[in-house]
Specification:
The complex is a heterodimer of chains A (333) and B (429).
Chain A (H helix, E strand, L loop, with lengths): L9 H4 L12 H13 L5 E4 L6 H13 L7 E5 L5 H13 L10 E6 L6 H13 L4 E7 L7 H6 L1 E4 L5 H14 L3 E2 L1 H11 L3 H14 L2 E2 L1 H11 L2 H11 L3 H14 L4 H13 L9 H20 L3 H16 L9
Parallel strand pairs in A: 1-4, 1-5, 2-3, 3-4, 6-7
Chain B lengths: L8 H4 L12 H15 L8 E5 L6 H12 L1 E7 L5 H14 L8 E7 L12 H11 L4 E5 L8 H5 L1 E5 L5 H15 L2 E2 L1 H11 L3 H12 L4 E2 L4 H11 L1 H10 L3 H5 L9 H16 L3 H24 L5 H13 L16 H8 L1 H18 L3 H18 L1 H10 L4 H7 L8 H10 L1
Parallel strand pairs in B: 1-4, 1-5, 2-3, 3-4, 6-7
Helix pairs in contact in B: 4-5, 7-8, 7-9, 8-9, 11-13, 13-14, 14-15, 17-18, 18-19
Classes of the chains: A alpha/beta (333), B alpha/beta (429).
């Protein structure tokens, strides 16, 4: 391995280096291996839910194309971090100007979270892709194909990553636990599977965090880890809002927004997890739970549409109070 | 001679005797009776009095006038200026227990605007006031706009409560025309009436308004009012918020839209901040108001994103009339509005946020994710590992190029409970 220092996070330590090491996504892997054999690839668009191997596949492809020099021939960009298309364009221009090393006649540009770019930025990206298509190939990575504009889609070979089947998912976790000398019980595995909702990165992070709490990882350790990773303000906020204490709930919300730096959508997801979680931190009857889920869906929708996280989430809190009205038994387990 | 150099008319014409104080005859009588008991050497059962009512109705003026007329030394602290109990103790507590130095007959301790005390910032401020009342050898007078704030419950229980009401239009006009006469300004009576009505019982505001159009002039006509209305309304977000949130009918709330240069993006933030203060305890009113605000916010977002300016009227209607149309609004109460927290928070927490982002960026690079994802999906786990297994945590951090100390500091982690580190240090020593 060419890294100067092996990264001790298990998500990185156990990230597959070669296409053959990848868990699942068999059809995709087969086609990518064809590309490697030909030493040629079209522009690629990887879409699929988080933690299903999109970035890993791109990195494996880079490694197999270029071998040990893959870092010199690959530019990794993240659309959420690069401020604006101009920055992206400049970096790509500078990078693609030089000739690639080795026998592959192009360099690789991996653009992650491409669906976070606005329509205008994507149009500009399209022109950039055309401009440099002789010296560079693009791998765009996104959660939703629908958020990528048509002209880009039509220039790319699209690969749809499926959620990893439970069996493969669990197999991988077992493998890591074994290598790390962690005793992982069946109910522990089940708990990780449930909490991570098919997201391999989240699952491995959960496993590593749970392992830090004790050498034996069972369901209890997993839930404790997940509980600690979720800011305590989330549950407090929900309980206070349901109990009708809007101001106190809003205070928690503001900690999450302005101290933790979470986005509105992050917070709604956490609330959703609390409301639906098997851990049952909140005692809700089915009717109220459904009301809450409907409300959260609406809030999530508005956040995607809306401008101001706090206004939308305050609206959520105000409505939680209505759902909670007359609900006496909202209490911690 | 210029108007600018003049002292405020509200000071210049502050009443000098109790009789000069306009309006509120019952309140005056009750206050004088309470004060007389003190001066007669038999302190009343309640050693403190709480004068409450809307701004500019004569609470503070009455205390000043009484002190002047009765020859009492006035020890005054504005409770929302003198922050923290420390300052109150230093300045007021001693004065309350000592005899007057100036040879006056006695003292009045005046603590203005006690409802402005923020219990979080002014740690112990309220406790100190209670202590002052307990130990004081002199009459203690408190004033407040909203005495029903739950935080003031204990204070209310040790005070005699005296209510002040808004000053009537006729009384206000009388004060204004007196001032005009003394200033030598010829003033159209309809102008004075308009000022008085506009002031809604706030005599101080009325006098300020009069001064701003009449000072240094010989005659004032109706046309001068326009400048006044423009100036007064344009600047005061508090009043805009008040008009929206206390409107009895949606049209009244909507009327704020006719104000020149209303900053609607500011307004939506101010409403977001203050809806719960005005509409609690009604959960229904709060939810209805936020629902309207939420929809207005979505439209503002679309306007910004897609230049969909045709949506603006809907957004504006929703954030004014829509908010005011909330069901089950509680009866009117006076609320001190707050500046939007968000605007303050974003500037004050900036440094911490930036340091966290720097660390997140390093981790993001190592993990092939965005720094936002690193912040929300990697770092929480890393924190947990670090806190429970510091050695492993340090190894991980080292491998991604982040100094453990910087990490612990940026994310408020307790490094104290790390036995391995302690033993290492000892060994070295």
């Amino acid at each position: 391995m060419s890294e100067t220092l092996a990264i001790e996070l298990w998500t990185e330590k156990y990230r597959p280096r070669k296409l053959d090491d990848m868990v699942d996504q068999k059809e995709i892997v087969e086609r990518l291996k064809e590309f490697v054999k030909d030493k040629n690839i079209p522009h690629l668009l990887f879409v699929g839910p988080p933690g299903t191997g999109k970035t890993t596949a791109a990195l494996c492809l880079a490694y197999e194309l270029y071998g040990e020099t893959w870092r010199d021939n690959t530019l990794e960009l993240n659309a959420s971090d690069e401020r604006g298309i101009d920055v992206i364009r400049t970096r790509i221009k500078e990078y693609a100007r030089t000739v690639p090393l080795g026998e592959v006649p192009f360099k690789l540009i991996i653009l992650d979270e491409a669906d976070n770019m606005t329509g205008d930025a994507q149009q500009a990206l399209r022109r950039t892709m055309e401009l440099f298509s002789r010296t560079a190939r693009f791998i765009l990575i996104a959660n939703y194909a629908s958020k990528i504009i048509e002209p880009i889609q039509s220039r790319c070979a699209i690969f749809r990553f499926q959620p990893i089947p439970k069996q493969d998912f669990i197999g991988r976790l077992k493998y890591i636990a074994e290598r790390e000398g962690v005793s992982l019980t069946d109910d522990g595995l089940e708990a990780i599977w449930e909490e991570s909702m098919g997201d391999m990165r989240k699952a491995i992070n959960t496993l590593q965090a749970a392992a830090a709490l004790g050498s034996k990882v069972d369901a209890d350790t997993v839930y404790r880890a997940v509980g600690k990773v979720t800011p305590s303000e989330v549950r407090e906020m929900i309980k206070l809002a349901l109990a009708g204490d809007f101001l106190a709930a809003r205070e928690r919300l503001r900690t999450l927004l302005y101290t933790y730096g979470l986005s509105g959508v992050d917070i709604v997801k956490l609330v959703y997890r609390e409301v639906t979680s098997a851990r049952g931190g909140l005692e809700l009857d089915d009717k109220r739970r459904l009301e809450l889920i409907e409300l959260l869906g609406e809030v999530n929708f508005r956040l995607v549409e809306g401008a101001d996280d706090e206004i939308q989430l305050n609206t959520m809190l105000a409505k939680l109070a209505l759902v909670g009205k007359g609900l006496a038994n909202v209490s911690a387990r | 001679m210029s108007a600018r150099a003049e002292i405020p008319w509200t000071e210049k014409y502050r009443p000098k005797t109790i009789d000069d104080v306009v309006g509120n005859p019952e309140a005056k009588k009750a206050f004088v009776a309470w004060l007389n008991a003190w001066l007669a050497g038999r302190p009343p059962e309640k050693k403190a009095v709480l004068l409450y009512g809307p701004p500019g109705c004569g609470k503070t003026s009455l205390v000043h006038a009484a002190a002047k007329q009765l020859g009492l030394e006035l020890v005054e602290a504005n409770a929302s200026d003198v922050r923290t109990s420390e300052a109150l103790k230093r300045r007021v507590l001693r004065a309350a227990t000592e005899a007057s130095l100036s040879g006056a007959r006695g003292k009045i301790i005046l603590l203005d605007e006690v409802d402005g005390i923020n219990p979080r910032e002014d740690a112990g401020g309220l406790d100190t006031i209670l202590e002052i009342i307990r130990v004081s050898r002199h009459p203690v007078v408190l004033t407040a706009n909203d005495p029903w704030d739950p935080r003031l419950r204990e204070l209310r229980s040790v005070c005699e409560l005296i209510e002040f009401r808004r000053v009537g239009v006729r009384e206000t006009v009388k004060v204004l025309s007196d001032i005009c006469r003394k200033e030598g300004v010829e003033c159209d009576p309809s102008v004075l009436k308009a000022i008085a009505e506009n002031s809604e019982g706030d005599l101080r505001a009325a006098i300020n308004d009069l001064q701003s159009i009449a000072a240094g002039r010989q005659a004032v006509g109706l046309e001068d009012l326009e400048i006044l209305g423009y100036r007064a309304k344009q600047l005061n977000m508090f009043e805009v918020v008040r008009q929206v949130l206390t409107a009895k009918r949606p049209e009244t709330a909507r009327a704020v839209l006719s104000m020149p240069s209303l900053d609607y993006e500011m307004l939506i933030q101010w409403l977001n901040e203050n809806i719960p203060y005005q509409y609690s305890p009604s959960a229904v009113a709060i939810a209805d108001a936020y629902e309207a605000l939420s929809k207005a916010d979505i439209m503002l977002a679309r306007i910004k994103k897609e230049q969909a300016w045709t949506l603006l009227p809907y957004a504006l209607d929703l954030m004014t009339a829509g908010v005011a149309a909330a069901r089950e609004k509680p009866p009117f109460k006076f609320v001190k509005y707050s500046f939007p927290f968000k605007l303050r928070a974003l500037s004050s927490a900036k440094e911490i946020r930036e340091e966290r982002l720097r660390i997140a960026r390093a981790i993001a690079r190592a993990c092939h994710v965005s720094s936002k994802k690193a912040l929300t999906e990697v770092i929480p786990y890393l924190k947990l590992v670090y806190e429970n297994d510091p050695q492993r945590g340090e190894r991980i951090l080292e491998s991604v190029g982040v100094p453990a100390e910087a990490f612990a500091k940026a994310f408020d982690l307790t490094v104290a409970k790390r036995p391995p580190a302690v033993t290492r240090a000892r060994r070295r020593a």
